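#struct-pred

JT: dropping the chains for the assembly here, can someone run the whole complex?
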Amino acid sequence: MSIILETKGLNRSFGAVIAAKDINVQISLGEVVGVIGSNGAGKTTFINMVTGYLPPSSGEILFEHQSILGKAPRQITRMGMARSFQVAQLFPELSVLDNLIAALVAAESPRPSFLRPTRTPIRIAKAEDILEEFGIPHLRDALVSAVPQGARKLIDIAMALIGNPRMLLLDEPTSGVSVEEKFSLMDTVMAAVRHHGVTVLFVEHDMEIVERYVSRILAFYSGEIIADGPPAAVMADQKVRELVIGHHAPQGGVRKRSAGQ
Amino acid sequence: MKLDKTQGALLAVTVALAAAGFAAPYWLTFLLMLALAKGLVVQGVVIQMRTGLVSFGQGLFFCIGGYGVGVASNLMGCTDAFVQLGLAVVVSLAVAAVLGLLMTRYRDIFFAMLSLALSMILFGVLVKNQALGSTDGFNVAAQTYLGWAPGPHQQKLVSYLLTVVIAGIAAQLIYLYMHSGVGQISEAIRENEIRVEYLGLSPRWLIYGNYLVAAAISAVGGALTAFATGHIDPEMAFWTTSGEFVFIALLGGITHVAAPFVAAVLFAVVRTYALEFTPNTWQLILGVVLLAIIIFLPKGLWSLIQRDKRAKA
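RK: done, full complex below.
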C-alpha cells in the first residue's frame, strides 16, 4: 500500500527536555492509526511537528513523498493534511453556519475575495449538508460559544474535513466530551472519515476508543515510539502495559483510562 | 444589479444628503463634510478592528491624504480634485505597502503602539520641514473639477457633493467588503488566528490587505478634509487626531457600515455644542460620553439598533 506520511529520524528537544527522539514512522493510505501515551510522552509534539506548527530539531517529514519541512501550517493544509485540536479551535462569536462557511471560503481559494459575498446559496447548502452529515443541523444558527462541547468537537473536525484533505490528524477528539457522548461522537466522525476516504491519525487517551476504531497503534513514551502494530499486539506489549496503560490493566481488553488521564 | 435593504438604505441616505446640500445652511454642510471625511478614516480604523487590531496611528494616512492634496496643489500646481485624490491614495498605498510588511508582524498593544509611533514620526518630519509649512502647515488652493473651476459659492456646494458621493460609494463598497470572504475571515482572525492558519489561509496576508484598504480610505478622508477646510497642518498626524478616530470607532461600533459615519456626525455635533456651551471643559464632556459608551454599550451605539431588532424578532 502506498505511503502517505513518513517521518525519518525525527527529533525535537526543548533545552534539556527531549520531546521527540528518533521517530521513524510510515503511515499507509487509508489507515486509521491511534497514537497513545501518557501526558508528556510526545504525542502532541509529534502532531505539531507533522502539521508544521513546530519545527523539528532534526529529521525529515514526507507527505505523499514530498518534504514538508519548513512549510507553514497553511501550506501543509493546502497540500492535503488537515488537523483538529484537543481544545476545539473555532470562531466563538460566529454562528455554526458561519464557521463552516469560513472554512468553505478558505477551502476554495487561498486568496478570498474582497467584494464577493460569502453567504451564497451554494455555500449555505454545502454547509447544511455537512451539518446533516455530522448530526447537528439543529445548531445551524447557534453561536459557537453557546453550543455544547461535543458539538464543538464535531464542528472542529467538520471544518478540518471541508477542504477534502487526504490525511486528517485528530488531537484527542473525545477529550472534554462526556462518557455518554464519546462513542456516538466517534461513530459520527469515523463515518464521515470513511465517507471522505481519509487516512486518519489520532491521538487519544481513552483506550476504549482506541481499541474500537483504529487499525494500528503507535505507543509513545518519553518522546520515543515504544510499540507500533495492530491494537491487540500493542495492548499486550509488556512495555506498553507498564509505561502507557498502567500495571494493573487487565490483559486482552483494557477498560480503564490510561495512566496519563 | 439588485440592491438589498441595507444597500438601498445607504443609497437613499446618500441621495438625501446630496439633496440637503442645496437647501441646508453652510455651517451644517461643512459639519457634515468634515464628519463624513472623518467617518471614512474611522472606516479604516474599523476595518482593522474587525481583525482585532486597533490602529492608534490612522492619522498617518489621514495626514498623507491631506498633504497629498496640498503638495499637488501648491508644489505641483495641479488643482484638479480627482488628480489630487488619486495622488493622495497612491502615495498612501505606497507608504502602507512598505509599512504593512512590518506592521502585520505585530498584534495587540504592539500593533497599536507601533502605528502610533509611525504617525508621530510623520508629525515630527512635517514639523521640522519648512518647505511643507512646518507647524503651521499651509493653505490649499481651491479645487477644479476636470477643468471646471466653480465660483466661491459653487465651490462649497461642489466640494460637499463630492464628499457625499465618495462617502456613499465607499459605504457601498465597505458593505460588500464586510460580507465578502476577506470581511468574514477578518472577523475569524480576530476570534482565532490559529484556526484561520489551519484552514489554509495566511492571516498575515489578510491583515496586510486590510491595512492597505484602510490606508487608502483614510487618505481619501484626509484629502476630503483638505478640500473642506482649505488648510492642512501636521496636527493631522498627531496622536490626538488618531485617538479621535479610535474614539469615534468605539462610539459607533464595528458591526455595521453606517456606524462610523453616524458616530462621526454625532461626535461632531457633541463637540460643536460642548465647545459652544463649555469652551474650557469640552474634552471632559467627550470623555464622559466615551466612558458611558464603554460601560453601557461596549459594542457601540449601533448595538442599540441591533438590540431593538433582536427584541422585535
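JT: nice. The longest strand of chain B covers residues 138-139. The CA atoms of residues 104 and 263 of chain B lie 28 Å apart.
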